[in-house]
Amino acid sequence: MAARVTSAEVKVIVETSISDVTTPFIDMATLIVDEDLADTGMSAARLTKIELYLAAHFVLMTEERGGLTKTKTGESEDTFRSFMGLALKGTRYGQTALLLDSSGVLTTMGQYRATIEAL
Questions:
Q1: What percent of the chain has pLDDT over 70?
Q2: Is pTM, for the whole model, over 0.85?
């Protein structure tokens, strides 16, 4: 399916120096929405917002290495949140996508599933 959002729309919510965020950020968000969320019964408007915030999440992970948490002016210092292990909870945009996902699918993505086998 075609992307629901544009590079310009993503740039409205996330500041970035990347000129075109369509590839791979919007493409990745579109893939997730199409394959994991499209059949969950959520409205097209909600899926579009989720795609927008997922794309912004991917941009921020690349641009700021997970999200700026602290800036010090004297002797210049920036501290970034490590998003390793946090998945979508690692950025404010990912957290918004999780909030918008009423199906709960995004919350469980990437989690290991326990299995029990009979001997």
A1: 79
A2: no
